[in-house]
From TrEMBL:
Gene Ontology molecular functions: DNA binding
Organism: Mycolicibacterium diernhoferi
Family matches, as PROSITE patterns: HTH_HXLR
Pfam families on file: HxlR (PF01638)
Domain HTH hxlR-type: 14-111
Keywords, ordered alphabetically: DNA-binding, Transcription, Transcription regulation
Organismal lineage: Bacteria, Bacillati, Actinomycetota, Actinomycetes, Mycobacteriales
Matching Gene3D superfamilies: Winged helix-like DNA-binding domain superfamily/Winged helix DNA-binding domain (1.10.10.10)
Name of this protein: Transcriptional regulator
Amino acid sequence: MTSSRLAELPGRPCPIAAAIEVVGERWSLLVVRELHLGARTFNEIVVGTGAPRDRVAARLKSLMEAGVVERVEYQSSPQRFEYHLTPSGEELAPILTALLKWGLKHVVAPDDPDREAYRSATATRGQG
């Protein structure tokens, strides 16, 4: 896992600022979400996030450098890889759940027809 020195961060240095340096870039948490939900291939991550391919590639690279994601070869000829969360990446699951719950409560329109599926999913896991 990449380490940061708090004094090297701009503004008020704190662990939140250090964490945002790793997962605060646009698309990073969505890449983590997709891996948490079971996506493994680059194409699955692109489809699930809706992000441009170059953005997904950049986020995967930075998340691998930070020790959040690992790339594993699953075929040698032609060479193919899949992506997995590291134990550090798995520890982001409660943050994803908290963002999901916050988004349902404060952001998603009350009349959104897809809203209930997410409310049901969090209740099924005992989180909603």
